[in-house]
UniProtKB/TrEMBL annotation:
Residues 281-312 are annotated as: Disordered. SUPFAM superfamilies: ARM repeat. This is HEAT repeat-containing protein 6. Residues 285-295 have a biased composition (Basic residues). InterPro entries: ARM-like, ARM-type_fold, DUF4042, HEAT6. Residues 388-569 form the DUF4042 domain. Residues 296-308 have a biased composition (Basic and acidic residues). It comes from Dromaius novaehollandiae.
Amino acid sequence: PVAIAPVPGGRKMAAVEVPQPELGPEPGPGGSFRRYLARLGFLFQDVCALLVQACQLVNFDQEHLVSKVCQLIHHLLNRFQVIVDEQNLNFLLSYCISALKQCSSWTHVEILQALAALVYNNGPKCQKYLPDLLGKAGLLLQFSDSAQLDVELRRAAVRSMANLCLSVPGQPYLDESYRSVCFQTFLSILQSSKTSDVDDITFCMLLQNALKGIQSLLNGGKMKLMQTDQLGSLLAVLKKCMFHGLPGLSIEMPPVLYPAPLPQYDKRSPVKQEQSELAAFKQTGNRRKKSKGKQKKGEFGEDTKDDLADTGNESIHETDMLKLHLRDVQNSPCSDLRTHALDVAYMPTGKDHLSSHYNSWKRISSSESEYSDAEGGIQSKMRSYQAKVRQGALACFLSAIKSIEKRVLYGYWSAFVPDAPGIGSPQSVSLMTIALKDPSPKTRACSLQVLSAILEGSKQFLSVAEDANDHKRAFTPFSVTIASSIRELHRCLLLALVAESSSQTLTQIIKCLANLVSNAPYNRLKPGLLTRVWNQIKPYICHKDVNVRVSSLTLLGAIVSIQAPLPEVQLLLQQPSSSGLSNSGTGTPHRFNSSEQWRKTFPLEGEPADNPGNMPSEPCWLIRLCISIIVLPREDSCSDSDANFPSGCVYEPSPVRLESLQVLALLVKGYFSMAQSYLLELGEVACKCMEEMDPSIQLHGAKLLEELGTGVVQQYKPDSAVAPDHRVPVSVVTFWTMMLNGPLPGALQNSQHATLQTSACDALSSILPEAFSSLQNDRQILCITLLLGLNHSENPLVKAAAARALGVYILFSCLRQDVMFVADTANAILNSLHDKSPNVRAKAAWSLGNLTDTLIVNMETMGQSFQEEFSDLLLLKMLRSATEASKDKDKVKSNAVRALGNLLHFLQPYHITNPRFRETIEESIQALISTVQSEATMKVRWNACYALGNVFKNPALPLGEAPWTTQAYNALSSVVKSCKNFKVRIKSAMALSIPSKRECYGPTEQFCQIWSALVVALQKSEDTEDFLEFKYSASLRTQICQALIHLLSLAKNTDLPFISETITENGDAIKAYVLQYMKSGVEENEAGMHTNLCEREKALKGAIEHLCGIEKQLEGKARVRVSVYLEDILTNHVNAAELTEA
């Protein structure tokens, strides 16, 4: 280190060498710089004090010393990453700014370098200096201007500006005006072209600094790219820089990219393009040898020591092979593709094999070289800097993707994502061009990361794609264009897969494929795409690099989970286990047949221990593969190149086993019919995982168990499409006995691992009710006791899962009639309903709704005996808690009002007359009425209307007499006329048709208001602003017609004059709707009721008979005889039906 000291007798400066103390090795990137500086013998403040003292001693007229002091500032701050305190920072910044203003131009580069070091990560502390630096006549704007001839000076100014733009978490960011100035400066630099007097490396460094500046602005979270021109300008320069210096490629970009559905602006002729590519590959020669030095995952554009090796030391990837596959991949079967290319992708990675395989491309001898050694070194360095520009542009693009809305981004889809080339035209350049042709593995990985970010969340955009039918139109629909792009993405990514040798880049390719698979609408595309992906990824499951193995399994998981079940995937799962594995140089095919060894170790109940090793009728090879990875010891031939995993480990590395467990869970969820024959074996896998020490393995074992249980329950649901003889036998009790005698109870009681407890609760709630009733009594008691105990857990996740599980158990037929269990469950749920966690309260409210459903079922099946046994005090407590919960958040409220409706239906006459209940009942009904009228979510209002309908079913309540009757009917009448959601309207119309006696509707005025509201609702049943609601309009009319006929069958003589008047005004419209209702025959309406033709005719005839009797009493006082009107409708209906039959 160099210290500056005053020379006696004046203010001249001299450089004094300070002896370097003996030091150990410097700490790595994660080491402590403070400890390192302590060993040096001084702290940060000492460095700052030294720099301040040096500046105080140097006048601005001593320009040489000013230059040296600035070099010292730059060196010390960068070398030791010194954190400068605010006071010293202010002094040093003032010094540098004054020096820029007063010193000669030859010192400016060193001063700007010092300034850049000072402002790095100190932007928020530099606010008062921004006018001098970034104002209208700011120094940095002057020096970075395009008119500035000194490129080094311009570069130093841009670097300082980029460092100023770095955001500091928790600190205020640059003002909008300064952000805009910086953005325009960076953008103009990226849009500029290199002049002849500027060398390539300096220009690359200038572009790098501008790209870092824009990336900092985007990462700061303040830059909103809202204007089309601003965003289009940025994307245009980023696309230009993405290909900067890429061998054999030169594209011209316009200043602005605009959203467009088709590729644009690719100004290249096919002949020139091909020639330039050939020339470039002849120059670069050997392309893709394995990169030296380990690259950090996701690291973009960092200045690392191995950057020079990034381009000069790569593996082979020549033009001929690319052209072969670009033509053949899409048209050839996957087995042929592997025959041609897998030898390249899976040959041994040693240098000898590479040199012998493509000897003509290996290296250029000294006699053939066009450059001397010095020139070759310069060329290598230049390619390295060009690669850094491309990496910087891709990193910047990644930040831009995160800064703009996806719907805006997808307007530029065609500019960055490949599409199949048209006849006679070259393929447009895209991110896949870089992934396939860039000589730098790091740059290829960057482009794939960007492509992954674009594909992530693209499901809705890609859902329009369709090419299942042959396209024979004069124009190409957008759906076909997107489908073509999806196919091209598959083709290019599979090409990149077989051609890649860098493990890090290979991992990114597979991750990108997984993102594509997760978002593509395969059910709308011609089959075959997934088959190619499936067959080409199988060998990589046994790749030597652990990250490649993990990402390969992730891709398989994406395939078995996307739009499951897909017929194409079902066929793939039934492929022979060895299919596609024999060509892998690193594979271990016998591993796929060795899962039977594990079954010998753990013999299953009911089958002999010496089960044969080869069973030709294996239904699913992927299950066997995953089981073998999870439970079998690792094999020597699959040793990991990654030193992070100990070589002495018995099993596969944890990430591989975890991904295998996730694949199993996804496969069971999507293709349970294929997994059910492995039920007991998969149960043993789950048990084994939950017995291990690794918490992550335990957790995923519990999740697998939950999916197995859920799969069985789904098969036994009433609406299940699985035939009874194809379902898992109810003897699945063996499976659950194994679980409950195994590690599941221990997992439920493992309070040190709350996430595991949560998953174990979810698993226990997935037991088949029929299986639970067949369990031994002590196992049933164990399940109930554990869940009731966990309901008092202090961890909200565990408590929520336990509350939900109790809500499942309360529906079990073998438990719901047990009054003591119902009471214990009710108390536990009410406890959770008052928890401070919204998630716990939401789960508890759902369970309370289920519990009250059980009360109604018991009331209907067991009669009064159950009601008398159930505690009045507990019932009152439930009413009060549900009423309070109805004022909570919507997720709690929707089930709270459902519970209220059931509880008010459950009440007996002695409850209603009990003074303790009276006030609570009034509050509960008022809560329902206010919820119906509220602006809550439609689900909440739907449940509230349903709940009021339940209230009306209780004959013990004073419906029609109590003051709340009018409020309830008015709320429902308002909703049936004007609610935007038709499902809510349907439920309110259903509620209005429930009272069975005329007295329940109150006085004539109230009855007529309800009638009028239903007529208006019928006429508005097709009026909607939301097209999605239109499909419910028929169900709405059905429900309203039922309600109108129901009201007519109950009407009394004082009601008829108003009804007659309504028919006079709207008779034709009502008649048309009622005839349609009568004609529609068997139809299931939204209320879940089946009303066939005979029942509808019977209801109409009943209304006619009732009205005839009343009209006789009126003796012709009504203007229109309603009975005659209805008879006319019935006659028309009968005549129409006879004509139809004839």
